[in-house]
Write a structure and sequence with these properties.
Distance between the termini: 95 Å
Strand content: 15-25%
CATH class of the largest domain: Alpha Beta
Structural class: alpha/beta
Number of strands: 23
Number of helices: 23
Radius of gyration: 29 Å
Helix content: 25-40%
Largest sheet: 7 strands, mixed
Strand order of the largest sheet: 12-11-13-14-16-15-21
Shape: elongated
CATH superfamily of the largest domain: Thiamin diphosphate (ThDP)-binding fold, Pyr/PP domains
Number of domains: 3
């Protein structure tokens, strides 16, 4: 049998057919857009050879894929059909990538292990590394593909991903498709040298620079890289020099920033034309058969487009589906006491240990969390010694890396419980949280999810200054798709954390630093079977004249405020919410119906803080029961200073709460 560059005629012809199919889909989608039948398009034209050369070395349904928006030909190469692509372009209900929830070309297909991608360029790198780490942890031979354009290598997540993948010898291939333009910005304005040169310092990382319009040269690089990955020798970076034959997107006009001469030069490197010439010159196909083949594929694409147009749009009534799993029906279990007194940080440690024993797929990582340190607050003390470095380990000092890799692990079935050492430093991970963690289930139409727990020590009163004192609850209750948990005592912390470790949704678990070893936050310790469901507030103290709605460290401060005013028992009711999302508003409503007055006490900033939303709900749903204004106590709108006298001026204190209590009781 004749072979050409290691391929048979049939194999080369199949590649050529897929190139034509990809190009034909590009053209058809642009036609539909001009007919106002779709709204957006991002072309693959010019990238086909590089993508199809990559696709042949993977095992669809076994290996894992994190493609980017130009990977039309790659997805065809690993098994996505023309019909599936057309459904995505037209945003139909049966679109396998998102059910019409995302822009076209945001690929995802569970059966092929194409993990749903978002519009955030670069976030996929760390997720892919997390997936590769999970494959290594579970000792499989599966490897991971992740791709992007050269412009995205300016993102910090790219370099964080190379760092972790190289250090861990992760089985991953990074594919950078260099068409020289990030929208209109040329790569000479993006990077301080070649991408391969910038990555040269990472050990265990092999680097390839190839002509991405040459199918055979590119395929050789991918074959070598995939063999390295499967043999456990580490990651590879393949930079393919390609051409972008279309504007960045249908919203762009590249003639505004590229010369006609430049565009004409790119056409000379059209990979479809290059492959056609190769096939004709090597007698794989004649010109006439090539012309007929193109016509036949164009007709098939037209037929598939007509079929896709006839498919149903998503039901508007489904727009709110899949924000959460709706599987979290855990009930509160009987509280069997195993210790008369435990401080909160130890209760958290015990909960983690018990859940690690229960679930062999649960892992814990973060900065300084491994032994002998066991975390800066010792919440993870002893866990790496007990479970080993494969399941409990230190991460790089990079919050985006922590969250990004956790997403990639979670999609494989691993349950990551990660620690952000201080919540004040969570902000570099917010792209991963806001655009990835909280949207994955929704944007994939329930095909993918990333259940994880993000532990975050929060709050002030420790003289921590501006960056060790922040409260972040106001930000996170604004994010649909993640549960927000904020316990005030050891027993609740243990029950809530164990629930967080078991449910099928992301959870941010806020632990107030000042409560870790406080006597008033210590409690009896429930046993390993204790679970406390989310959305169930606790009545700390009953009363009939005023309702205090609070959580975290403010629970005890509210109790102390009553004592400082020597207010008699039975007047003020204190509600500890325990979770801010879900919010137990039924308990709030029932209490206000009885008392007629509401005071919301929280540590976060007063302006646009959590109390503002709760106040709005009270005004909307309890107005007829109110006998006075809804009042709030919170931090003043300023950073939290280090000096104790300055700190006291900013944060809410017992006297502030006591003053508001008297005001409302006397109203």
């Amino acid at each position: 049998m004749s072979r050409f560059n290691g391929f048979t005629k049939k194999q080369i012809l199949d590649v050529y057919k897929n190139m034509i199919l990809s190009r034909s889909l590009d053209n058809k989608m642009l036609t539909l857009l001009k007919q106002s039948k779709s709204f957006f398009h991002m072309g693959c034209s010019g990238h086909e050879a590089a993508q199809l050369a990559a696709s042949t070395v993977f095992k669809p349904g076994e290996d894992w894929f994190f493609p980017y928006y130009r990977d039309l030909a790659f997805c065809i190469g690993i098994g996505m059909t023309a019909k599936e692509h057309m459904l995505g372009s037209l945003a139909r209900a049966e679109d396998p990538s998102s059910g019409g929830r995302q822009l076209p070309h945001h690929y995802g297909l569970k059966k092929l292990k194409i993990v749903s991608q978002s519009s955030s360029t670069g976030t996929q790198f760390l997720q892919a590394v997390g997936c590769a780490l999970a494959r290594k942890l579970e000792k499989t031979k599966e490897i991971v593909y992740v791709s992007a354009g050269e412009g995205t290598t300016s993102q910090g997540d790219f370099h964080e991903a190379l760092n972790w993948a190289s250090r861990a010898k992760a089985p991953i291939i990074f594919h950078i498709q260099d068409n020289e333009y990030a929208i209109s910005t040329h790569k000479s304005e993006q990077t301080g040298g070649s991408i391969s040169a910038l990555a040269s310092g990472y050990e265990n990382l092999y680097k390839y620079d190839v002509d991405g319009t040459d199918y055979f040269e590119t395929n050789l690089a991918f074959r070598q890289a995939s063999q390295r990955a499967r043999k456990g020798r580490g990651p590879s970076l393949i930079v393919t020099n390609v051409v972008r034959l279309l504007p960045h997107s249908s919203s762009d006009d590249h003639r505004k920033y590229r010369s006609n001469k430049d565009l004409e030069e790119d056409k000379k490197r059209d990979p479809v034309v290059i492959m056609e010439e190769y096939c004709i010159n090597n007698s794989i196909i004649t010109q006439k058969k090539s012309d007929n083949l193109q016509k036949d594929i164009h007709k098939l694409v037209d037929i598939d487009a007509e079929w896709a147009e006839l498919q149903e749009h998503p039901d508007p009534g489904s727009a709110l589906n899949h924000v959460y799993s709706n599987e979290n029906n855990l009930i509160e279990t009987k509280k069997n006491i195993i210790d008369d007194n435990v401080v909160m940080v130890d209760a958290i440690n015990h909960a983690l240990k018990e859940e690690m024993i229960r679930n062999e797929k649960m892992i814990i990582f973060g900065q300084d969390i491994a032994d002998p340190k066991g975390g800066v607050f010792t919440a993870t003390k002893g866990l790496s010694k007990h479970f080993g470095a494969q399941r409990v380990f230190n991460s790089p000092l990079a919050e985006s890396s922590i969250i990004g890799t956790a997403i990639g692990m979670a999609v494989t079935g691993i349950k990551p419980v990660v620690e952000i050492q201080f919540a004040d430093y969570i902000w570099t991970a917010m792209m991963q949280i806001r655009n990835e963690v909280v949207t994955l289930r929704y944007r994939s139409n329930n095909a993918w999810s990333c259940p994880m727990v993000i532990r975050a020590p929060v709050g002030g009163y420790i003289h921590g200054g501006l960056c060790h004192s922040q409260s972040i609850d106001g930000f996170f209750i604004h994010l649909p798709g993640i549960y927000v948990v904020y316990p005030s005592n050891a027993s609740d912390a243990k029950g809530l954390l164990k629930t967080a470790c078991r449910i099928n949704d992301p959870v941010i678990f806020m632990e107030h630093k000042s409560l870790y070893r406080q006597g008033h936050a210590s409690s009896e310790e429930p046993d390993k079977n204790y679970l406390l469901p989310f959305g169930k507030a606790k009545i700390v103290q009953k009363g009939d004249s005023l309702s205090i709605i609070t959580w975290g460290a403010m629970v005890q401060k509210s109790i102390d405020a009553l004592k400082s005013n020597e207010i008699e028992n039975g007047l003020v009711e204190i509600i500890d919410l325990r979770t801010l999302n879900p919010l137990d508003f039924s308990t709030i409503k029932k209490s206000i119906k009885k008392t007629g007055k509401a005071l919301i006490v929280h540590e976060d900033n007063l302006t646009s803080g959590p109390g503002a939303e709760i106040s709005a709900l009270v005004a909307e749903h309890c107005f007829e029961n109110l006998d006075g204004p809804v009042k709030r106590v919170g931090a003043k709108d300023a950073p939290i200073p280090y000096n104790p006298f300055l700190e006291e001026e900013i944060l809410p204190h017992v006297d502030d709460i006591a003053f508001s209590i008297i005001e409302l009781l006397e109203y």
